[in-house]
Amino acid sequence: MKKEVEEKNIIENRIEALRKEIKEHKLTGFLITCQENRRYFSGFKATDPMLTESSGSLFITDKKLYLLTDSRYVLAAAEEAPLFEVIDCQVSLGGAVAKLAGNNPIIGFEAENLTVAREHEFKRSFKRVELVPSPMNVSSLRISKSPQEIADITKALRITEKAIGLLWDELKVGSTESWAAWFLDRHFRDLGGEGPAFETIVAAGPRAALPHASPGSKKITASEMVVIDCGARYNGYASDITRTMTPGKILPWQKEIYRIVREAQLKALEIIGPGVPANVVDKVARNHIFEAGYGDYFGHSLGHGVGLAVHEAPSLNPINKKPLEVGSVVTIEPGIYLPNRGGVRLEQLVLITENGKKVLNSDKHFYDF
Ligand SMILES: [Mn+2]
Hints:
- The chain is α+β, with helices and mostly antiparallel strands.
- It folds into two domains: 3-142, 3-Layer(aba) Sandwich (Creatine Amidinohydrolase, Chain A, domain 1); 147-359, CATH 3.90.230.10.
- The protein is 36% helix and 20% strand.
- It has nine helices and 19 strands.
- It has helices at residues 3-24, 35-42, 74-80, 93-101, 116-125, 147-170, 177-190, 252-271, 278-294; strands at residues 29-32, 57-61, 65-69, 85-88, 106-109, 130-133, 195-196, 201-204, 226-230, 232-234, 237-238, 241-245, 303-305, 312-316, 329-332, 335-338, 342-345, 348-352, 357-359.
- The protein starts with a helix and ends in a 10-residue tail after the last strand.
- Bound molecules: manganese (II) ion.
């Protein structure tokens, strides 16, 4: 089968699943404003790798498919989303949808992605309209990945691993955090990626105790560990890796927290699989860190789904009891952060399979203590 035909079929199947939900919830149509969902259900790309620009919305009814964008994207949208009727919508999205939706429509929308101002604009644009916030969880349709999606995530991961490998060899005492971040970002592009999927984190020494520090002008010293959290994007799909490295000599206290974090990760990787509740995986890693005496220093979730979004469902946290689904790609990223001293985080990407799991990472950038 030709690639375009395959892609068309994939999109058609996704729309079919969405239309089933539209029917079930008795909606006239569903409005998609989330960028990842827009791409998922239409194929329309038009955004930068960090997804900072919103350049269009979808309005899907049981008979029609509309893509509303502005003149900058009309041609690209028509090419990338051939199943959709592209509408050049200059000013008011509400006004444009009002023309398409008929009288007294019931319109579902993504509550997480529509501002209150937009909602008001919608209400003003219709004589009568019923707006239903998130009648169904559209994003959850993205949880289980297709083979093509898994291939794209894996390719993004390989690019990231290669860039990290180059940095592993190049990082020196005296290198700055921002140099290391730029080194990675540059290689993401050189190696065939679209760029970083999110702002690259490089945090050295005491700054590594801040789980999401932005890289700055700080120079890395010989006794500091550096937390590096980054991911290239490829064909729209994100990757996400964290490694902790040092250009110098690792001190005993650093070894200790590194070893505990790695053990926690391996324990979680051992039990993860289809049907295992997300919170159980989180608990295994969290308990290990707790029992080692560092329970107060691991505050964030153990992991999250990765796909078109860097962070998406399912979340691996202490409260999500949902069983993991086959085809999910999730991170396992325990950490220990000691205020004013330093921190360690290690992150692997895992695919949930019929029989268990497959760690997607292939790099060896771990210390073996
Ligand atoms: Mn992550």
